[in-house]
TrEMBL record:
GO biological process terms, semicolon-separated: microtubule-based movement
The name this protein goes by in its record: Dynein heavy chain tail domain-containing protein
UniProt domain Dynein heavy chain tail: residue ranges: 17-299, 307-391
One Pfam family matching this protein: DHC_N1
InterPro entries assigned to the protein according to its UniProt record, in alphabetical order: DHC (IPR026983), Dynein_heavy_tail (IPR013594)
GO CC term (a single one): axonemal dynein complex
Length: 416
C-alpha cells in the first residue's frame, strides 16, 4: 500500500472511485444477508416449523464465513479506505460471524429433538415435551446472542406450529366428522391434552429459568407475554374444545336409539324420541357432508355449528319453559352473526386494497376469478342468514340487541 500511496503523490481518484463502487455493491450483498430475520415467515402469515429457524442460522453462518474467508482481500481494501479517509470505511468495517456461530452452535441439539417429534406418533408426543423445554432453557441461559425475547418467541411459535401440524395430521380435519363418534372424540381429547401440556410446561419452565444460570451471571427471564407464543395455539385449542362438545352432544343423542318408554303413553313418547333421533341423524349427516374446515378459525364454522345444533333440538325449543330459558341465547347468536358480517366486510375491503390479490380459480382469468371469489363470499353470508331466519323466535331476538338493525341494514338487509 505504501507504494501505491507514497507521501506527496497525487491520489488516483479513478482507483478510489472503483474501490468505493465495489464497496457499495459488496455492502449491499452483505446487508441482504444481515437484514433477513428468522421471524419473517411468521410475520408474512406462514406457519413454519422449528427446522426453519435452525436452517436460517446455519445458512447465515455459512454466508458470513464465506465473506470472512476473503479476509485478506477485505483487509487490503479496508486499509485503502482508511488511509484516504473514505466515508464508506466506518459503515463497512463491522461484519462479524460471532453471533451466527454462537446461535448455530447452541441450536444444534434441537435437531434430534425435532426429529423425534416429527417421527413419533402424535399420542406419544407428550413425554418428549419436558426434555424439549429443558433444552430451550439451556439455550437461553448459555447462548450469548439467543437470549432475547424476540428470538425465543419465534422459536416457541415454530414449535407450536409443529405440534399443531402433527395434531392436524392425526385428526384429519376433512375426515373428522366422518369417523365413528367414539374415535373422533378420543382423537380430539388427545389433541387437547397435548396442546394444554405444551402450554402448561411453558409456564412451569418459565418459572425455573433462574435455576439454569450459574453464579455471578445476570439472570434474564422469559418476561414476554405468553399470548405472543400461543395466539394460534389458543385459537386451535378453543376450536378443539368446541368440537369436543359437538361429539359429546352427538353421543348423547345417539343414546336416544336405545330409549324405550313404558306406561300408557309409552308408545307415543317413544315415537317422539325416535323422531327426534331421526332428525338428529339427518342433521349430523349434513354436518358430515359439509365442506367446512373445522379448524379454520377465521371461517364461520361457529355459526354453522350452532345453527345446526338448534335445528337438531327442533320443536323441543318451542316448549314454554325451555323457550323462556333459552330465548336470551338468540341474542348471542345474532351477535356472532353480526361479527361474521363484519369479518366478511373486512375480507372484502382487504381484497379491494390489494391490486395483486390472488383469484380463487386457478384456471380462470383475473376478472372471472375475482367474480367467483366474490360470489363465494356472498354465499357465505347468505347461507348463514337463511339458516338464521329459519330459526324460531329470531324476530324476538333482534329486540334484545340494540343497533342490530343498524348493523345489518347498510351491509345486507335481512329482507333482501
Amino acid at each position: 500500500l505504501s507504494t501505491i500511496f507514497p507521501t506527496g503523490w497525487p491520489l488516483d481518484h479513478g482507483l478510489l472511485y472503483s474501490i468505493e463502487t465495489l464497496i457499495v455493491q459488496w455492502s449491499g450483498q452483505i446487508w441482504n444477508v444481515l437484514k433477513k430475520d428468522s421471524g419473517m415467515l411468521l410475520l408474512q402469515g406462514d406457519h413454519p416449523g422449528p427446522n426453519a429457524e435452525l436452517q436460517f442460522w446455519a445458512t447465515r453462518r455459512e454466508n458470513l464465513l464465506g465473506i470472512q474467508s476473503q479476509s485478506s482481500k477485505v483487509e487490503q481494501i479496508m486499509e485503502i479506505l482508511r488511509r484516504v479517509k473514505s466515508s464508506y470505511y466506518s459503515a463497512f468495517k463491522d461484519v462479524s460471524v460471532l453471533e451466527a456461530e454462537d446461535i448455530d452452535l447452541y441450536l444444534r441439539p434441537l435437531r434430534r429433538q425435532i426429529s423425534n417429534l416429527e417421527e413419533r406418533s402424535f399420542p406419544q408426543v407428550e413425554p418428549l415435551l419436558p426434555p424439549l423445554f429443558h433444552t430451550l432453557c439451556l439455550i437461553w441461559s448459555h447462548s450469548e446472542y439467543y437470549c432475547t425475547p424476540q428470538r425465543m418467541v419465534v422459536l416457541l411459535q415454530e414449535f407450536c406450529n409443529l405440534i399443531i401440524e402433527k395434531a392436524f395430521a392425526y385428526l384429519i380435519p376433512e375426515e373428522l366428522f366422518k369417523m365413528e363418534l367414539e374415535e373422533g372424540m378420543e382423537r380430539v381429547r388427545i389433541s387437547v391434552s397435548v396442546l394444554r401440556s405444551f402450554k402448561k410446561l411453558f409456564h412451569v419452565y418459565r418459572q425455573q429459568i433462574p435455576a439454569y444460570y450459574k453464579h455471578e451471571k445476570d439472570i434474564k427471564l422469559w418476561d414476554f407475554p405468553a399470548t405472543l407464543v400461543f395466539k394460534r395455539s389458543d385459537c386451535i385449542l378453543e376450536r378443539l374444545l368446541m368440537i369436543e362438545d359437538i361429539f359429546a352432544t352427538a353421543l348423547d343423542f345417539l343414546k336416544l336409539e336405545k330409549v324405550e318408554l313404558g306406561g300408557s303413553r309409552g308408545k307415543i313418547l317413544s315415537e317422539m324420541v325416535f323422531s327426534m333421533s331421526e332428525e338428529f341423524h339427518d342433521h349430523w349427516r349434513s354436518l358430515r357432508e359439509s365442506k367446512y374446515d373445522p379448524f379454520d378459525y377465521a371461517n364461520d364454522f361457529i355459526i354453522f355449528f350452532l345453527i345446526q345444533l338448534l335445528k337438531i333440538f327442533g320443536s323441543l325449543l318451542e316448549r314454554p319453559r325451555i323457550q323462556e330459558l333459552f330465548s336470551p341465547n338468540y341474542n348471542v347468536l345474532l351477535a356472532l352473526f353480526n361479527q361474521e358480517i363484519d369479518h366478511c366486510h373486512f375480507i372484502l375491503d382487504q381484497h379491494r386494497e390489494k391490486s395483486d390479490c390472488a383469484v380463487l380459480g386457478k384456471n380462470m382469468p383475473s376478472v372471472a376469478g375475482n367474480l367467483k371469489w366474490s360470489q363465494e363470499l356472498r354465499s357465505r353470508i347468505l347461507t348463514n342468514r337463511s339458516n338464521f331466519c329459519q330459526l324460531p323466535h329470531t324476530y324476538e331476538a333482534t329486540v334484545y340487541l340494540p343497533g342490530s338493525e343498524k348493523t345489518h341494514k347498510p351491509k345486507m338487509p335481512l329482507n333482501v
